[in-house]
């Protein structure tokens, strides 16, 4: 996406609203990777933790056991840097920049959970799956369909309960080796 005119998400000028940069843990000669660029292509697309243009939480860390970046919304901490492909908002930004109306359909599994009108969907993540987000994960979008949802891929999410913004939840499974080990319960409330 650099060739298309885009900078990394954590270089956006609105980054500090969404992401804490742990400057004390970034290798001195690599700090430039986190400098904000005010001429980056934002295209009126919200900050996207799931963008293919987002480095992972531990990139450029002096101490590899301490994150260099921390999502202010903890539900998205394991989303950053784990994209398999361009997110919906990445495609939206490219389409807006080049006045393109083509749509992008990923070749992965998609599900929707819809509650009756006026109700919301409550999801309980019973089991968050294996701790290798690159090979198997589940994106849960709770209603902001112009941006990436949270990535569920590890025991950190076990027994977490989340609530949709409206009556629809979109799920997208990234499945490798014919299995997705995430277990959910849901209900309308």
Automatic annotation (TrEMBL):
Domain spans labelled Peptidase M12A: 1-101
UniProt superkingdom: Eukaryota
Binding note for cofactor: Binds 1 zinc ion per subunit.
Keyword hit for Hydrolase: yes
Single GO MF annotation: metal ion binding
Biological process, per Gene Ontology: proteolysis
Transmembrane segments: none
Keyword field: EGF-like domain, Hydrolase, Metal-binding, Metalloprotease, Protease, Zinc
Record-listed E.C. numbers: 3.4.24.-
Organism encoding this protein: Caenorhabditis tropicalis
Co-factor(s): Zn(2+)
Protein name stated in the entry: Metalloendopeptidase
Class of this enzyme: hydrolase
InterPro entries (UniProt xref): MetalloPept_cat_dom_sf, Peptidase_M12A, Sperma_CUB_dom_sf
């Amino acid at each position: 996406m650099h060739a298309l005119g885009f900078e990394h998400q954590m270089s956006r000028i609105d980054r500090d609203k969404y992401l804490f940069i742990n400057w004390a843990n970034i290798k001195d000669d690599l700090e430039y990777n986190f400098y904000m660029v005010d001429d980056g292509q934002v295209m009126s697309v919200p900050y996207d933790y799931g963008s293919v243009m987002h480095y992972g939480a531990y990139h450029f860390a002096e101490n590899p056991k301490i994150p260099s970046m921390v999502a202010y919304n903890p539900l998205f901490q394991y989303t950053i840097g784990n994209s398999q492909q361009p997110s919906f908002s990445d495609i939206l930004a490219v389409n807006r920049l080049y006045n393109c109306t083509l749509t992008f359909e990923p070749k992965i599994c998609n599900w929707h959970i819809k509650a009756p009108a006026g109700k919301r969907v409550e999801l309980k993540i019973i089991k968050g799956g294996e701790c290798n987000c690159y090979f198997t994960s589940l994106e849960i979008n709770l209603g902001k369909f112009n941006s990436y949802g949270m990535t569920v891929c590890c025991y950190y999410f076990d027994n977490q309960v989340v609530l949709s913004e409206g009556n629809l939840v979109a799920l997208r499974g990234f499945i490798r080796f014919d299995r997705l080990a995430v277990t959910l319960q849901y209900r309308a409330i």
